[in-house]
Automatic annotation (TrEMBL):
The lineage of its organism: Bacteria, Bacillati, Actinomycetota, Actinomycetes, Kitasatosporales. It comes from Streptomyces macrosporus. Residues 24-71, 210-229, 773-794 are annotated as: Disordered. The keyword Transmembrane helix applies. Residues 52-71, 782-794 have a biased composition (Basic and acidic residues). SUPFAM superfamilies: alpha/beta-Hydrolases. InterPro entries: AB_hydrolase_fold (IPR029058). This is Integral membrane protein. Keywords: Membrane, Transmembrane, Transmembrane helix.
Length: 794
């Protein structure tokens, strides 16, 4: 008879729990995120991937260890980290994207429209105006390259014996077949053409590498509508896949750059060909080509403004006429214009400035008119915003997009003027361009006037900085007496500890003054820019003693302002290039540059196709795919945990989930700029309406914040119609003074190390418990209505 052996008791398999960590601005390593030097990448690539601790690589396949093994006492779920920092700062060459800063800022203006209903007529007008502002920046940048290459180098310096005598590299332009003015211009036109081609290639390459991620595996389900009846924009299945619009805008802007070069060449020849006694054949061909350029420009504008983003579904179609025919036609027109310009004209000589440089004034005037119209459209949209969709928290009363668009134009002007001024100074080393005794005439007069107003603009910034210092000092004095009230039962230190904490809180609150600073700079820029435009129109010389009417204090002040502004314009361009060069060798500098793009390139390229690529179009689908596939494969619970910018990515990914997956996912945000930055500056996507809709769709959401955090803050949703998402502010520092348990002073953490606070583990555990309770309630045959979300009221 065989020996009877007792049967071991059956164990109930516990469903796994996962914590998906998403880092914030600046990035970090998987080892730091997971607290273990031994990590392994389980999905993704070197650009963006999911990492786990080595011992957790297959934790879902070892449930017995999870219950009885070394993880039995662990209160945490399985941790894994999504690292996306290489999307913005991994490659040293991306530091040169700093030169595309005006394009990025113009793209931000598109997403800053007020939260009016989607079908409002002014929204269409707003989007069209932003795309026209973006198009004008492409024309301005190409015109700046033409100013440097065609005007300063080929037209002025190559024709001046004093300027060209010590520059051997100008030999091909001063001797032989290429020495005639037209052929010099055609050869120099290769620089702006190469720049336009480079921008086209970068836009195409970055789309393929970073933004062409496939949409989520299933479309998101229905979400609660906004007050206007439409769905939140970030919940639409096509929001993170805008291939068709980017392709169309890329073709339009490429054609605009090529046609700008063609226009500059035609303008240079027009004065000579249309003079009395000029060549009739060249005059007729010039007029014919001018009509062709005008038709091309009209087509570019039509393509750029005809249709906006399609977000209701992923739009993978390509407008082949716009994407293929338009750039090819512009290239053909440019080639014909180049032949026309290079045609031999025996009596044609170059002197003074290149004809047509007054176009900079017209571009500036056009940009000012577009920004003014954009402000009107934004005001109309803000007035049409439904009640509760803004609640007085929109930056600058809805005019933030217009102000940012104006700053993008100003940045473009600074880069244009700075490059022209520095190249002119470099070419005319023995004198000052544009004044008697100089070897060349120098850049257009408008750029000198624009340079003269820069010191005034910097003075406004300095005044604002001094006001901020006074404000911090007063706020610190006001807060200092009440600091100790948050630390009852702890030993009291000297007042210096209270002043240290109060100063951190006061500095953090400066972030809320950013709309005032941006508004002051925008208004000052508008007034000074208008003054520079009028001054350039009334004079033919830069502001100086000769132009101002002789010696005296005011002319001397004008000359000093012009010289200082000219130096500052060039210094800004040199600084940007130097930062890019340093980032090739210094990883720390590369990471610092990446922080700029972490904030500025979250949004898809909806206005300017040459802006740096949108990393969220890769990161959001990555996170959505991971949450959908993991929950479906394991049936477990998942908490997505996002810090700083990672909280924005996490919220955007949760928006894209279908209802079944969303019921298994909890959202934990900390140090989050969702309301403080995104909600105020981008109300249409992150305002009170969309955030409240997300709060109602996600059963389990908790937000942690500190008063000392200059970036993160409360989300400010829930409350009246349900428990608040926000926990009461965490203490920072955790301990006021020295105690036997903590003999050394605790640091003021501000924006970092939220996971070191005991509240973090408590809130994560509560979220997972809440998920389990919701699952049990939903699986009961006679389940009652959805239980209250008690986790938010803890």
């Amino acid at each position: 008879m065989s020996e009877h052996r007792p049967v071991p008791p059956q164990r109930t398999r516990r469903e796994p729990a996962l914590e998906l960590l998403v880092h914030g601005v600046g990035g970090t390593t998987p080892q730091e995120m997971l607290g273990d030097p031994r990590t392994v990448r389980i999905a993704g690539d070197g650009t963006a991937g999911i990492h786990r601790r080595t011992e957790d690589a297959d934790a879902e396949n070892r449930p017995e260890e999870t219950l009885d093994g070394p993880f039995a006492d662990r209160a945490r779920p399985i941790p894994e980290a999504y690292c996306w920092s290489n999307l913005t700062s991994g490659n040293s060459a991306r530091a040169l994207w700093l030169l595309l800063l005006p394009f990025m800022v113009a793209n931000l203006a598109h997403w800053m429209r007020p939260a009016a209903p989607a079908r409002h007529w002014a929204q269409r007008v707003y989007d069209v105006l932003v795309r026209l502002v973006a198009l004008s920046l492409t024309v301005l940048l190409t015109a700046a390259a033409c100013e440097v290459a065609l005007d300063l180098v080929a037209w002025q310096c190559a024709a001046s014996e004093r300027c060209a005598s010590d520059k051997s590299w100008l030999g091909p332009l001063t001797e032989g077949w290429w020495s005639s003015p037209g052929r010099r211009l055609v050869l120099a036109a290769l620089l702006p053409v190469a720049l336009t081609t480079l921008l086209w290639w970068l836009s195409h390459r970055t789309w393929s590498a970073y933004e062409s991620a496939s949409p989520p595996p299933r479309p998101p389900g229905p979400t609660r509508p906004l007050p206007g009846g439409e769905r939140p924009a970030l919940s639409l299945p096509g929001f993170w896949y805008g291939r068709r619009l980017v392709s169309r805008l890329r073709a339009a802007h490429t054609a605009a750059g090529l046609l700008t070069v063609a226009g500059v060449l035609l303008t240079a020849t027009a004065r000579h060909d249309r003079r009395p006694g000029g060549d009739t054949l060249l005059n007729v061909s010039g007029w014919t080509l001018a009509v062709a350029v005008a038709a091309g420009c009209t087509s570019v504008v039509v393509v750029a403004v005809r249709k906006g983003r399609t977000e209701s579904e992923p739009d993978e179609r390509i407008d082949r006429w716009a994407s293929k025919v338009l750039p090819s036609a512009a290239s053909a027109v440019l080639a014909l214009v180049a032949v026309h310009t290079a045609w031999h004209r025996p009596d044609w000589t170059s002197s003074a400035r290149l004809p047509g440089t007054g176009a900079f004034a017209w571009i500036t005037l056009l940009q000012g008119a577009l920004v003014a119209a954009l402000a009107v459209a934004a005001y109309v949209l803000h007035r049409a915003t439904p009640p509760g969709a803004c609640e007085g928290r929109c930056a600058m009363g809805g005019l933030g997009g217009a102000a940012v668009a104006l700053l993008a134009c100003a940045l473009g002007g600074v880069l244009t003027g700075g490059a022209a001024q520095r190249v002119a100074d470099w070419l005319d080393k023995g004198g000052t361009p544009g004044v008697p005794g100089g070897a060349i005439a120098g850049p257009p007069v408008l750029l000198s006037w624009q340079a003269s107003v820069i010191p005034t603009l910097l003075l406004v910034v300095v005044v604002f900085a001094l006001v901020a210092v006074v404000r911090v000092w007063r706020e610190r004095r006001r807060l200092t007496p009440g600091i100790v009230d948050d630390y009852e039962g702890e030993p009291r230190e000297l007042d210096s500890r209270s002043r240290q904490i109060a100063r951190a809180v006061a500095l953090a609150r400066l972030t809320d003054t950013a709309p005032t600073l941006i508004g002051a700079i925008a208004v000052t820029t508008l007034l000074l820019g208008a003054g520079a435009l009028v001054g350039a129109a009334l004079t033919e010389a830069p502001p100086g003693p000769a132009a101002a009417g002789g010696p005296g204090p005011l002319p001397a002040l004008a000359e000093t302002a012009q010289a200082l502004g000219s130096w500052l314009m060039g210094a800004m361009v040199v600084l940007l290039v130097a930062m890019g060069r340093r980032a090739y060798r210094d990883a720390a500098a590369r990471r610092t540059v990446g922080i700029l793009w972490d904030v500025g390139t979250f949004w898809p390229r909806a206005a300017h196709p040459f802006a740096p690529p949108c990393y969220a179009e890769r990161a959001v689908p990555d996170l959505t795919w991971r949450m959908c596939t993991w929950t479906e494969r394991t049936g477990g619970r998942l908490v997505i945990s996002g810090h700083s910018q990672g909280s924005v990515l996490a919220a955007a990914a949760v928006w894209q989930l279908d209802p079944a997956t969303r019921g298994r996912v909890a959202l934990l945000t900390y140090g989050s700029p969702l309301e403080r930055l995104y909600g105020r500056w981008f109300p249409a996507c992150f305002g009170p309406g969309p955030l409240n809709a997300l709060s109602r769709e996600v059963d389990c959401w908790r937000n942690l914040w500190r008063r000392t955090d200059p970036i993160g803050g409360p989300v400010m949703v829930g409350g009246d119609d349900g428990p608040s998402v926000d926990r009461e502010p965490l203490r920072d520092p955790l301990h006021y003074g020295r105690t036997p348990e903590y003999p050394l002073p605790a640091p003021v953490l501000g924006h970092g190390e939220y996971q070191a606070d005991p509240a973090f583990d408590a809130e994560r555990t509560a979220l997972l418990e809440r998920l389990a309770a919701v699952r049990r309630s939903s699986s009961a045959p006679d389940r009652p209505d959805r239980p209250e979300r008690s986790v938010r009221s803890r």
